Amino acid sequence: MNARPERLGAWPLADGRTRFRLWSPAARAVSLVLCGEDQPMQPEGDGLFAVDTLAPEGTPYRFRIDGDAQVPDPASRWQPHGVDGASAVLGEDNHAWQTPDWRGRPWHELVIYEVHAGCSGGFEGLRAQLPALAAMGITALELMPVAQFPGRRNWGYDGVFPYAPAEAYGRPEALKALVDAAHAQGMAVLLDVVYNHFGPMGNLLAGYAPSFFDSGRSTPWGAAIDFNQAQVRRFFIDNALMWMQEYQFDGLRLDAVHAIDSDAFLQQLSDEVHASVGATRHVHLVLENERNQARWLRGTYQAQWNDDYHNALHVLLTGEHEGYYADYAGPGLAASLLARCLGEGFAWQGQKTPRDVARGEPSGDLPPARFVAFAQNHDQVGNRAFGERLSTLVSPAHARLATALTVLVPMVPLLFMGEPWQARTPFLFFTDFPPPLDEAVREGRRREFAAFSAFSDPAARASIPDPNDPQTFAASVVELPGADDVEARATLAWFTELLALRRQYLQPGLEAARSLGTQVLSDHAVQAGWQLPSGEWWLAFNAGETPVRHSLPVGNCVLQQGHSDARQLGPGSLRVHWVMR
To answer: CA end-to-end span of the chain, whole Å?
Structure first.
């Protein structure tokens, strides 16, 4: 883990010293403030400043810009006193890995469980849940962002120190122990990373590195990053490499890459990550991308979160039609768009949506394994005013239908924390900002809902939970079901049976799966089939309230959920056939 000459931050050297390096293109001079004393840093050109000195692990430090302002290290790997405190030196990686031979899991084996570390008791609390998750059949964790954020409570998308694990969740070594323990359970671990913006508090880069940002663009969450700058690209790519090498993560989910606006950066990041780990490790890079750019999924990136799948399914189940659901609402539209997802990947492949926005690229040539399917995730639950899960919005039969369908399509499934046992606890939007930012966030969130019919009345908006209230976070904590929770235990048993079917029929030939076509059976029902190396996988489901006829080929009925027979699907039912050819 010794320092590479070009790496930013504080990194141990082979001779026992630490190299401190900062990019500050607007500064004339920079010094390292260490133990109350200033040490001049040497200019290296291109706005870079560096110094090598003795600094044991835990030593607090800052940088002084032009003899005046002191700032923490933007590439700090440890912020023990929060975003406003000094950075701290993190020494050699002395974690004694218990799984040194771990090489990851191939993509087709993944069943992903998205989880918020803070809502799970921090890194140590989540580590204690691993045996139970593995017993369910979960084969991969996906951690919501863990980068240091303001306060003690946050979703993670307000991070301002991308290299430093949030102190609220545990020390850096606790995160390594979590990853190590997951590997010991046979579980891969993916990390959600945010490279498109910094949070609204604690980021001081604009004062001494204004060229870090693109003044000609903005994002919904803050100033846009300028990826035309070589040092900016280096900052984030080295961050990705740190997670993969030092922390042994098995992959990254890149948040909202449509706000990055740099194909060169996305290509370089993928190239360098794969080159760094070689061919012996299974490493997975996954995108969130509203633009539905299928070209990234033809070799550069492993897969993309398929929001189209979720949105069409959600409209089928709930009938909701406001906000972005308007693009999936209307007579028969949700069913036809979901059928297109099942057969071709994306629903929107360049066409104009009902909101008159053209997005997407043709994706019909891609195998379904290039898409991550989900019926719920942190966004789709937590961006609701009251954080309701599907289990509280629809009947138990329809909630189970959504989970079963997601697990049994030949995409890679993602389950949101608590979903395997149909948890009913909300997942609310929570933060921990001081005044006046706390009020701005609370009132800003309430204004966001003013366009929704249920919140047109100011009194209704006032009932939306305050993100900064500690109880908002406390209400979102998810615990594993206890031994006396008979209903949850029965649901878990059902869920593990679904995953057993997936392992037996879908998993072995997942990468070779190809669509055999889809059929819209009604405004709320769809049928689809796929060719796999050893047979055909067919399913039909009815999210409506009245029976519909299906035309599944004759075969072995491996799942009959709800009331169905060889010709008809009852309300909330799913039927799956395996056909040998």
So the answer is: 53
Which residues face 577 on adjacent strands?
538, 557
Distance CA 229, CA 203 (A): 18
In the block, residue with structure tokens 């301002």: 160
The single-letter DSSP state of residue 256 is T
Q: Cα–Cα distance between 507 and 341 in angstroms, integer?
A: 19
Residues 6+ apart with CB under 8 A from 484: none
Measure the CA–CA gap between 28 and 41, rounded to whole angstroms. 11
| pLDDT digit string, tens, across residues 361-403 | 999 999 999 999 999 999 999 999 999 999 999 999 999 999 9
Q: What is the 3-state secondary structure (H, E, C) of 44-100?
A: EECCEEEEEECCCCCCEEEEEECCCEEECCCCCCCCCCCCCCCEECCCCCCCCCCCC
| Annotation says 255 is catalytic | yes
Q: What is the mean pLDDT of the chain?
A: 96
Q: Which two tokens stand for residue 379?
A: 């966004």
- Please report the pLDDT score of residue 5 as a whole number: 56
Cα torsion 503, 504, 508, 512: sign = negative
Residues 6+ apart with CB under 8 A from 424: 389, 391, 392
Q: Which two tokens stand for residue 345?
A: 């990947």
Single-letter code of the amino acid located at 301: Y
Catalytic hit among 142, 214, 255, 308: 255
pLDDT at 4 over 70: no
> Which residue of the set 214, 226, 288, 308 is catalytic?
288
Beta-carbon contacts of residue 569 (< 8 Å; ≥ 6 apart): 521, 525, 540, 541, 542, 547, 548, 549, 550, 562, 575
What's the CA gap between 89 and 138, in Å, rounded?
A: 36
Going by C-alpha positions, the residue among 209, 202, 142 that lies closest to residue 412 is 142
For residues 246 and 275, the answer to whether their CB atoms sit within 8 Å is no
Scanning 246-372, the segments in alpha helix (DSSP H) are: 263-277, 307-318, 333-344
Please name which of 470, 461, 316 lies closest in space to residue 402, comparing C-alpha atoms.
316
Contact predicate 489/304, CB 8 Å:
no
Which H or E element spans position 400? helix 396-408
The 10s digit of each residue's pLDDT in 459-509 is 999 999 999 999 999 999 999 999 999 999 999 999 999 999 999 999 999
DSSP code for 506:
I
Angstrom distance (rounded) from CA 2 to CA 8: 12
Per the omega criterion (within 30 degrees of 0), is the bond before 436 cis?
yes
What is the SS3 assignment for 475? Answer: coil
288 has catalytic annotation = yes
Distance set, CA 132 to CA 62, 128, 424, 450, 471 (Å): 42, 8, 19, 41, 27
Instruction: Give Cα separations from 201 to 22, 189, 407 (angstroms).
Output: 20, 29, 39
**The two structure tokens encoding residue 402:** 């959504």
User: How do residues 55-87 score in pLDDT, each as one tens digit?
Assistant: 999 999 999 999 999 999 999 999 999 999 999
